[in-house]
């Protein structure tokens, strides 16, 4: 069971930023990644559709013998996590809680900002989670739908991105938040622009780093942590293997994906 | 058969701009629209996946008794049209050919520009089709991946969009094209910005208008045109009915979608 892999899934390749952080923090764990690129993005889809897709993927990962699942997708974490936890009998961790816990630790003035895709922000999941843990916290949230396409275009250091960031982030800045949750797997690539726009004294919370830390704690607690220095197996399953996704994915992961398999999880409905 | 509806499909709600033009040009035709919003966008997906999805939808539309199918999606027109035409026995029209014919009529200096999503441009379909019809034509094409998210954000008249348009369109302008194919269903919403960036003397080719005209000709030629002034039935099928899509769709269509049904076409695999 200790030797079983960690399952990580996302609506696309964005979750590979989570894989990169898990590799850093948990270097001896085997990893099975599933990216639902054939049906990406989840952000604009309905709660039922996202929940159905998430269940299919969870069944697939359990079939691969994983010991724990990280839902790297903010949308799936927002809308499907509770259902998954109820229905399946293994630890399942979402990016939302990891981000909110870190933000609550970081803030000193109790004003927290949250940015994400339209769906993540509209779902209110970060706000609800923050408020449930700390009712006195003031939360200002802002959808930034152009950030993902800007990262995918490679314009992480471009005057257009600076202009877009100014437009999106000014309400957060004006309200004086001192901790800002980057509620989308692509946003860490915009850290320099976001940091410059927000100014000094604002802590940026990277959910990928936080969820990796949380995973380590939970594995340790359950006696499932693999600390043995051994060769690790990392397998990447995608629902579509077009070269676009592989190129973008490897940029996000920061290394080559050696074993990529195409799989249609709609069979797991 | 004359009374049968026209089937129109797209990867999402973008194809509703085609529906709007078909309604203008063919006011007495019944229409069945299918938007694959649960699996949108097609632009970044592989040829096999897009072909598989397109076949499923075509089978669904044929099951609804359509007399002709318009593939309103540029990606599906690029990669799947030939397969569909071979496999199914009814007239199937794509947006590509409609756009290229109009561009060839419009150009005087034989320099044609094409803009579209990364997938449409990478497929080379517009270039290949233009060259097959008129080998002497010079074609300059440019992917504009940020245009769709900018339209969906509603920033059709925004300084960011002007800046993005300048960046994307300068190679086309510098090369002196005098006709520019808007190779994506969302782009007509950016006509004012694109026209201003390109300057006077450049004809913008709107594929939605062209494909509607082409459909009228083909129906007439085959004796299938419905000219009787009667009540028309328009049905909209979507693979996901989240309010986002309906709101955006009605903006693109320019009117209410009265009958919306959710359908899962993966049963038609």
Structure summary:
2 copies of one chain form a homodimer. With 269 residues, the first copy, chain A, is of the alpha/beta class. The first copy, chain A, has helices at 16-25, 47-63, 74-87, 95-106, 118-123, 125-133, 147-152, 159-174, 191-198, 207-221, 243-253, and strands spanning 6-10, 31-35, 68-71, 92-94, 111-116, 138-143, 179-182, 203-206, 234-238, 259-262.
Could you walk me through the main structural features you see in this protein, from its secondary elements to its overall organization?
The first copy, chain A, is built from 11 helices and 10 strands. The first copy, chain A, has 269 residues and is of the alpha/beta class. Chain A folds into 2 domains: 6-94 and 209-268, Rossmann fold, CATH 3.40.50.1860; 96-207, 3-Layer(aba) Sandwich (Rossmann fold), CATH 3.40.50. In chain A, the strands form 2 sheets. A 6-stranded parallel beta sheet of chain A has the order 4-3-1-2-9-10, with helices on both faces. In chain A, β9, α11 (243-253) and β10 (259-262) form a beta-alpha-beta unit. Chain A binds chain B through residues 37-40, 44-46, 49, 118-119, 145-146, 148-150, 152-153, 159-160, 163-164, 167, 240-242, 244-245, 266, and chain B through 37-40, 44-46, 49, 118-119, 145-146, 148-150, 152-153, 159-160, 163-164, 167, 240-242, 244-245, 266.
